Amino acid sequence: MAESTEMAALEESFRKFAVYGDTKATGQEMNGKNWAKLCKDCKVIDGKGVTGTDVDIVFSKVKGKTTRCINVEEFKKALEELAPKRFKDKSKEEAFDAMCQLVAGKEPVNVGVTKAKSVGAVERLTDTSKYTGSHKERFDETGKGKGKSGRENLVDDSGYVAAYKNAGTYDAKVKK
Length: 176
Description:
The chain is mainly α. About 50% of the residues lie in helices and about 0% in strands. Strands 1-2 form a two-stranded antiparallel ribbon. The longest helix has 18 residues, at about 1-20.
C-alpha cells in the first residue's frame, strides 16, 4: 500500500513540474527545462555525484528520438538511471526508492520572484489625502479615483460664474 501511495505522490510531483511555466501544458509530458528544474528543486542534483549535465544526458537517453518531452514512464526510467549515481552506497532498488522519496510530494519553487515592498517614500507619494491642487480633484474622500469626472473639466452650464456662493438662489429672491 505504501508503494502505491508513493508512486501516486511521485506522479503528482511529475504533473506539477510538467505544467510549471507553461500555460499550454497538460501535465502528461515534461520538457527538458522542467526536468532540470525538478532535479534541482528536489535536490537530485548534488553537485558531486549528479550534475546538471548528467540530468540533461539522462533526459536525452530516455526520451524518444523525435520527441522533446518525456511521459510518466520515461520519467520513472530517468529516475532509475540517476539513482545509482546519486546514491552510490545503496543497491539499485534502494537507490531508486531513495530517489522517489526525494521527488515525491514536491512542488516547483519560485526563486528570485520579486515581491512588492512599500517603502516610506512610496507610501507618502501614493497617499491621496496629501494631494493638492488639480490632483486632489481626481480622488474622492476615501482615496478612490473619480474616473472620467476627475480627469475632465465638466462644463457648468447653470448660468452662474464658477465658484459663485449664491448659485441657484435667484429664483427664490425674485418671485414673479
